Protein: Sec-independent protein translocase protein TatC
Amino acid sequence: MSTPLEHQLPAPLATQQQSALEEMPITQHLMVLRKHLFKMIALLIGLFFCLLPLANKTYQVLSEPLRAQLPSTSTMIATDVTATFMAPFKLNFFVALLLAMPYILYQLWAFVKPALYEKEKNLALPLLIGSICLFYIGISFAYFVALPSILHFFISVSPETVAPMTDINSYLAFCLKLFLVFGFTFEIPVITLLLILIGLVSTEQLVEKRRFIVVGCFFVAMFVTPPDALSMIMLAVPMWLLFEIGLWLGKLLEKRRTV
Structure:
């Protein structure tokens, strides 16, 4: 029995592609995957060592929002002997991974591309590019908007008798968690579109359940952000707005299908 995907290309071409993939042994698939993995790892290692001389400066850039909020009598501290080396080292790997991410996703795309039909390729590529851009936008929002506001709130409510001095490893872990949370949160439009594309939900169903989705945004934000109302609002509101953007794009997509 033919599947719907087989009708997205002319029958002879679809049959040829499917036959070629079926005839390829599993070992050849693994060899192709290994080639792409080598390229990804080589770029990641290369970027890591190229950025390593700038590791301390990179950490200074990361700590700037905190140092701007600290009183003049306070400073950042290291509670472990190796912290002054390991914190910039970990941050350097994270930055290298961020810079290499488009190339890593491109290599994964190149691996799965032969198995996709033409219509799937036309849909997958814009979604892939959009997800990368949204992830970077989410991290930028976290660094330039959310992080300074959250730090200002916590330092402003600290008792006068307590001098805030943050450990550099703790601050790094806090920032990386915040960046990843906002980065993945900004993928909501892409996730919404994918759910509509595969037919799991429709825009009408999402509109009907909008109130529950909005409540869910605040519920999720309450658990993944620091324990304060400001952090929760700064994550939940963008989640809701991004859902609305994804819903709007989904409605446009459904209209194009009916035309």
Observations:
- Residues 27-258 form one domain.
- The chain has one domain: 27-258.
- The first helix runs from residue 11 to 23.
- The CA atoms of residues 139 and 179 lie 5 Å apart.
